[in-house]
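Suppose you are handed a protein chain with no further information: no name, no annotation, nothing but its sequence. What can you learn? This example shows the usual starting point.
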Amino acid sequence: MYWGIKGRCEDPRHPGYKSYGAKGIRNFLTQNDIEALFIRDHAYELIHPSIDRINSYCDYTYENCQIISLRENVARMHREKKEERRIIKMLLRHWEWQEARNSRYSVKGVSHNCDIGVMAACGPVMAPVRVQVPNVTPPL
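A reasonable first move is to predict its three-dimensional structure. Written in structure tokens, the prediction is:
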């Protein structure tokens, strides 16, 4: 578990680096911390224990990590991604509506690119998300 975290956060050749280290996620856990997490979270009772960051925008720290079952971790990840997509759609609709209202023109047929950052609760960390705004005509 420790070496997987270390690889994802520090090794650019690791397959998971682009989702962790490249986004600024750092590892502050030691092997002793992971052993303590196992004891604290009763991981020895789980069939497939998996490490989970409580706030997925923050680093791997003892306070921000927990050991849960792999099944629960995957389900949580899917729920978070679904919620993130919902929020991005809502922000894009609002942005398009504001843009059309302010400039008094229709954006139909015009494609816009924008960066939307999500401010993390753990400090001044921005997680930029590159999205393609769909071609729609917002209400005037």
